[in-house]
Specification:
- The chain has 4 helices and 5 strands, in the order ααβαββαββ.
- By secondary structure, it is an alpha+beta fold.
- It is extended and about 70 Å long.
- 11% of the residues are buried.
- The mean pLDDT is 84.
Length: 167
């Protein structure tokens, strides 16, 4: 681990210490490390160096908006290889908050988020994207349970890819 020293004006140091306390950091070093990681991540994403990502897209939409629910469902279905799960909650009689968990190529995830947020009736869209690298890749034999409850192995295999957050 490397150490470095920075100088801050008194007023900025007080604001920073207040910010640290509000977020529950125990030390200035922890806060600075998180701020640096966040800024480096934003820079990686701007430079298109992030090939894969996991992401959370959250947005509010009008439930009664003409065909909006169907359009959103169709978009998610058309991108079933990227959409991992969705969850929504009622805010009031007209509005829902929906959260969509995404995983895949950063360009595709970002483009899908842009399309969803641009739909008429969608408001307050926000994408939280985390760059990842392929960490483990392995193949499993495909097992099925027959009509008598016994496991049967088939020659088909399916591949699992695990991702690790980029630091």
């Amino acid at each position: 681990m490397q150490r470095f020293t920075i100088s801050l004006q008194d007023e900025l140091a007080e604001q920073f210490d207040s910010w640290i306390a509000q977020r529950g950091y125990e030390t200035r070093s922890e806060a600075v490390r998180d701020m640096l990681r966040a800024e480096l991540e934003r820079d990686r994403q701007r430079a298109a160096q992030s090939l894969h990502c996991v992401a959370n897209l959250s947005y509010v939409y009008r439930f009664g908006q003409r065909e909006l629910v169907e359009r959103l469902a169709r978009l998610q279905h058309d991108h079933h290889d990227v959409v991992v799960s969705t969850m929504h909650m009622q805010l009031d009689h007209e509005h829902r908050l929906e959260t969509v968990m995404l995983r895949g190529a950063t360009t595709i995830v970002s483009a899908l988020a842009d399309v969803i947020c641009a739909e008429r009736g969608v408001h307050h869209g926000r994408l939280n994207l985390v760059s990842v690298t392929e960490h483990l890749s392995h193949v499993h034999p495909h097992h099925e349970i027959d009509h008598e409850g016994h496991h049967e192995s088939h020659h088909q295999e399916h591949r699992h890819i695990h991702f690790k957050p980029t630091h």
